[in-house]
Amino acid sequence: MSVAAFISIAILTLAGALAAACLRKLIHAALCLVVAFLGLATFYFFLGAEFVGLVQVFVYVGAVAVLIVFTILLTRREDEDAAGFNWGGVIVAVAVFAGLAWTIMKTPSLSVVAPVIEPLTVKRIGEVLMTNYVWPLQCVGLLLTAALIGALVLVMEEKR
Amino acid sequence: MTPTLQLCLIISAALFSIGLLAALGRRHAIFILIGIELMLAAANLNFIAFWRFGPEPQNPTGVMVAIFSIAIAAAEAAVGLALVIAVYRHYRTTNVRRFNQLKG
Asked: Which candidate in A11, A93, A155, B45 could, as Cys together with B21 as Cys, close a disulfide (CB 3.0–4.6 Å)?
């Protein structure tokens, strides 16, 4: 992986994220969010976590983005005052970025290059998931079931 | 020349700040959810980067945390968007400035 490819993907991802945060039309913002998520998946591929990149494409681009578009279409109304910008939030975000970037630049131990490793296979991930991480896996299954039921209960029509 | 951990962390910090910008700067409930998703994605990128550049990358701890984090983010998005729909039914708007009473 070369630095030029890395930086060009970074620019694409950050541009997509910035467009998702700043565009006036919600539906355009949701489509730009898809670009940002695809860029992130490319980063995971670059960093050697192919399985996470694939999961990112399936879950975020396949499910979350579609869910957001559905919600936008269900709650669509053209009230323009909702498109206003809160400038205090912008100042806070820029200050947080400045602080984080200053800290990262000042830390000398962070300028390491990636060590050469053997590729992480899906078989290995499955083995670890079924041995060391079996309790977290069960908890996530329970959480997803609870979220499914909770989302259904929240959007169900009340009986009169 | 290959990228360093510093570059990954700078990208992730920028992504986190953009998410914070969307969550704090916009007044639309769906934009706030998009901002939270972006911040979670930035945290995931950090996990993967620290795993890859860390001292023992043959131990896939960071990858596991990232997978669980993606699952939890999906659950959070589903419940959050259901809440947006439920609130929209009541107030007929998604502007968070108008959500100013708990019951009524």
From this structure: A93
Q: Residue A35's CB: how many other CB atoms inside 10 A? A: 17
The confidence band for A160, taking pLDDT boundaries of 50, 70 and 90, is low
pLDDT digit string, tens, across residues A68-124: 999 989 887 765 555 567 788 889 999 999 999 999 999 888 777 777 777 888 899
The letter for the amino acid at B84 is: V
* Cβ-based neighbours of B18, under 8 Å, separated by 6 or more: A14, A17, A18, A21, A93, B35, B38
Q: What is the pLDDT of residue B1?
A: 58
pLDDT of res. A155: 86
**Is B5-98 a domain of CATH 3.40.50.300?**
no
Q: Which fold has domain A3-78+85-120?
A: Four Helix Bundle (Hemerythrin (Met), subunit A) (1.20.120)
Nearest CB neighbour to B2, from listed A1, A70, A143: A1
Per domain, the residue ranges of chain A are 3-78+85-120, 121-160
With H, G, I as helix, E, B as strand and everything else as coil, classify residue B12.
helix
CA nearest B95 in A: which residue?
A82
CB contact under 8 A, A125 and B11: no
Residue B72 with chain A: CB contacts under 8 Å: 140, 143
What residues does each domain of chain B span? Answer: 5-98
